[in-house]
Amino acid sequence: MGKSLIEIAQQLIDCDKKVRLIYGFNGNGKTRLSKEFRLLVAPKNDTETDETGLSSKKIIYYNAFTEDLFYWDNDLANDIDLKLKIHPNSFTEWVLNEQGQDQNVISHFQNYTDRTLTPKFNSDYSEVTFSYERGNEEPSPNIKISKGEESSFIWSVFYSLLKQVIDVLNVAEPGERETDKLNQLKYVFIDDPVTSLDDNHLIQLAVDLAELIKTSESALKFVITTHNPIFYNVLHNEINKKGCFMLDRQEDGTFELQEKNGDSNKSFSYHLHLMKILEEAIKNNQVQKYHFTLLRNLYEKTASFLGFPRWSELLPDNKENYYNRIMQFTSHSTLANESVAEPSPQEKQTVKLLLDHLISNYSFWKEA
C-alpha cells in the first residue's frame, strides 16, 4: 500500500543518514515532498517569510518556491532597464546584506556561465542587473539572461548561503561561532537545482555541491531530490553516509519511497542513459569535455558489474595512454575551471573508439 507525502517525509526524517539522495521522475511529487518535509520539521510559523527572524529557522530549502523569490521587471515601456527583482526573506537578507556575500555570488555565477557576464546588485540587494563586460570594450546594456543562466544565478545565491551556514556550524562550540542565528538549523532540502542547465555545468554543480557537503562536520542533515540521472550519479559516487531512494507515484495517487542500495545503474538503468548520450554526441560530432566523464562512468560501472577491481583493466591495448587521456578530462580540479578546454579531433575520436571497444568486447552491454 502506498503512502501519503507526509508519511514519506516522516520516513526521510527517520532515516539516520547524513544525506538522503532521492531520484524521481518529473511529476512524481518531489517539490510537494519538499513542502511537506518542511512543514513536519517546522510545523507552525517557522517559514522563510515570517517575522520571527533567522534565529528560529530549522530548515533551509531550494526548490521551485525559492526560484519564485526572483522575478523579472522587463521594462515593457522602454525595453531598456531590465532587472531581476529579489523578494527578500531572512536568508537572502542575511547572506547579502549582513554577510556581504555578493562578490562570492557573482564569482560562483560566472563559474557556471561566462566570466564576462556580470551581475550588479543595487544598494539594498532588492534587484540585480546583468551586462557583458569585456575588458576595454564598452559594457553592453542591461540584458535579460537565459533561463539556464537565471537558474545558475539563483543557485549561486543559495550556494553562497549554504557554504556560509556550513562554515558557521562547523565550529563545534555554539558560543564560539561568529553568529548564533544558525544554531537551530537541522536540515537542508535541495530539490532539483539543475533545471535548464546543460550537462557540463550540471556536472560541475554536482561536484561543487558534493565537495561542500563533505566539508560539513556538524549535525546538519541534507535531503537532495532530482529527476536527472547524471546529477544523481555524481552525487551518489561522491558522497558517503547517504541513504538512496527512488520516489514513485502510484496510480491511486499515493507514493512509495523505495530504498536503493545499489548505484544509479541498478536503480534506473543509468548505463543506458549514458550510452545514449555518448552515441548521440559522437553521431553529431558534438563530443565535449564532460563526455569523457560520462565515458569513465560507463567503464567504472561495467568493471564493477563484471568484477574487475579497476576500470582501467577494460581499456584496449596501450592502456596507460588511454587512461591518461581520460583522466586529463575527468579531473575534478578542471571541472570547476573557468576555461573549459575543447577536445581536439583526435581526443573526440578517443571517445568513439573506447565506447565501441566497450560495446564490442563485453556482452553485458550488448544485451542491454
How many alpha or pi helices? 15
What would the principal axes of the Cα set say about the shape? globular
Kindly, what is the distance between the CA atoms of the first and last residues, rounded to a whole number of angstroms?
Answer: 31 Å
Strands, count: 10
What are the low-pLDDT stretches, counting only 5+ consecutive residues below 50? 46-52, 332-340, 364-368
- The amount of helix comes to 40-55%
Which strand order spans the largest sheet, edge to edge or round the barrel?
2-7-8-1-9-10
Largest sheet features: 6 strands, mixed
Question: In words, what does this structure look like?
Answer:
With 368 residues, this protein is α/β, with parallel strands linked by helices. The protein folds into 2 domains: 5-69 and 148-268, Rossmann fold (3-Layer(aba) Sandwich); 270-367, no CATH class. Helices cover 46% and strands 14% of the residues. It has 15 helices and 10 strands. The protein has helices at residues 5-14, 30-41, 64-67, 90-98, 102-112, 147-169, 199-214, 229-238, 264-268, 270-283, 289-306, 319-330, 332-335, 345-361, 363-367; strands at residues 19-23, 59-62, 70-73, 83-86, 117-121, 127-132, 187-191, 221-226, 242-249, 255-259. The strands form 2 sheets. A 6-stranded mixed sheet has the order 2-7-8-1-9-10, sandwiched between helices. A hairpin with a 5-residue loop joins strand 5 and strand 6 (127-132). The longest helix is centred in the middle third of the chain and has 23 residues, at 147-169. The radius of gyration is 22 Å and the shape is globular. The model is unreliable at 46-52, 332-340 and 364-368 (pLDDT under 50).
